[in-house]
Amino acid sequence: MSDVASTFRDQYGAEPDGLWAAPGRVNLIGEHTDYNDGFVLPFALPERVVAAASRADAGWRVWSDLEEEPASFDDPGEPGAVSGWAAYVAGVVWALRDAGYEVPPANLALTSDVPLGAGVSSSAALESAVLTALIDLGGLDIPVADRPAIAQRAENVYVGAPTGIMDQSASIRCQAGQALFLDCRSLEVEQIPFDVAAEGLAVLVVNSNAPHRHVDGEYGARRKSCEEAARLLGVPALRDVAADGLDETLERLDDHVMRRRVRHVVTENQRVLDTVELLRSGRIREIGPLMTSSHASMRDDFEITVPEVDVAVEAALMAGAYGARMTGGGFGGCVLALIDADRADATAAAVADAYAEHGFTAPTPFVAVPSQGATRL
Ligand code: GLA
């Protein structure tokens, strides 16, 4: 990660007023439940976006060490007016203003070590770092609990991606050593201790490096299907469908594909609740089977996995993982495996071997440590 303070000095000829950071995330369990008003359990990664920033006289100017050219805009305009990576920055300015806040003009320099296109929320990290910096620079009085919805509006309305509220919540509200149990309807959170190292465990993340296939269209299609199912079942959201008696409820839907979509969401919500129960009583190893059944549900019912992630999950389990699952929106991205800490290299090697056998591009493994959410450094 580059020294963003010195980039700032080089570009703007002055010291920044401060440095702000916001991380990427992995989701321990609870996939495609957020936009169904359900439950999620992400934790923040140590990989993060760092923003060096100062107030300016007018407009916004942003250097990113991932880009050749700076982005600058005098006004974010209407959604879509600024495009490319700068849309995430303009979107945050737009969303803050739309929520009634006076946003300070600013100069920014950004750096990031959050892997791009890996399904670990590099865009939410970018939005959250910029949002946190602008809030502090402007002295804006915005409770932490209200911030993720502002970053989410930047993504939904300005950038135009119909995502839920999990990623921005994770980037902003997670704490080191904890997983964030979030009720996506009430937006209430509970920090759940997730100190895997103390139990001799580790979470191995394997970036499947699968080429992203139709992610945007498929994500939107899943979301539509869930909303339509809720309408047909006469409930505000699939969160309101009880896990008890689910089979009878599903019979009220004619469409077999839709039945499977609903079954994923309802059983996944229950798996989040069961995982939280186990973690509250310190039984970390026992969440493994819930992770693995979450994966089966994403593969068979929600149909959002790809061969690369299925092979990675199988190989990790064969290598002795307590549980393994894809994390994130799907159609590629990362796999999580809960393993004994001393099995990280062996598990990563087992996945790499399985990939070689299938002729897939080699995966990228790393060990994930639950880390701090957005903060001023
Ligand atoms: C993406 C979205 C999230 C969530 C996940 C799936 O990461 O940004 O809002 O829907 O997919 O759980």
What do these coordinates show?
The protein has 377 residues and is α+β, with helices and mostly antiparallel strands. Helices cover 40% and strands 21% of the residues. The protein has eleven helices and 13 strands. It has helices at 4-12, 86-98, 122-137, 147-159, 166-173, 215-233, 246-251, 256-280, 288-300, 307-318, 344-358, and strands spanning 18-27, 39-40, 42-55, 60-64, 71-73, 106-112, 178-183, 189-193, 201-207, 323-327, 334-340, 364-368, 375-376. The strands form three sheets. It has a six-stranded mixed β-sheet with strand order 5-4-6-3-1-13, with helices on both faces. A four-stranded antiparallel β-sheet has the order 10-11-9-12. Strand 4 and strand 5 form a beta hairpin. Helix 2 (86-98) crosses helix 4 (147-159), helix 3 (122-137) packs across helix 5 and helix 6 (215-233) packs across helix 8 (256-280). It is globular, with a radius of gyration of 21 Å. The model has no long low-confidence stretch (mean pLDDT 96). Alpha-D-galactopyranose is lined by residues 31-32, 34-35, 163-164, 166-167, 328-329. Alpha-D-galactopyranose binds next to helix 5.
